Amino acid sequence: FQAEDGIRDVEMSRGLGDEYKRQLQEEVEQMIFLVTQLEEEIKTIHMNQRKTRKRVIKQNIPHIDLKFHGN
Fold first, then answer.
1. Is residue 9 within 8 Å of 1, Cβ to Cβ?
2. pLDDT tens per residue, the chain (71 residues)?
3. How far is it, in rounded angstroms, from Cα 60 to Cα 51?
4. H or E segment to which residue 44 belongs
5. Contact between 2 and 17 (Cβ < 8 Å)
6. pTM score above 0.70
7. How far apart are CA 32 and CA 38, in angstroms?
């Protein structure tokens, strides 16, 4: 640590600025990790929605009878 008179201990101490930078870097890395996970979840949800939508559309298309009636 640094004393009031500016004399430091024999061991090198890290200043508070260094500690804040380290903490900030860890928080940024954690946020990047979480955003990446969220992006993957969103992709999965969108893929599942598309599959479901296609299934619903196929089920709801009326079957057209192409035979001529009355002939």
1. yes
2. 455 555 555 555 567 788 889 999 999 999 999 999 999 999 999 988 888 877 766 666 666 655 655 55
3. 14
4. helix 16-60
5. no
6. no
7. 10
Rounded Cα distance between 11 and 49, Å, is: 59
- Rounded to whole angstroms, how far apart are CA atoms 45 and 37? 12
In angstroms, the CA 9 to CA 20 distance is 21
Give CA torsion, residues 20, 23, 28, 31, to 10 deg. -140
Q: Which amino acid is at 11?
A: E
Which pLDDT score is estimated for 62?
A: 62
CA atoms of 40 and 61, how far apart (whole Å): 32
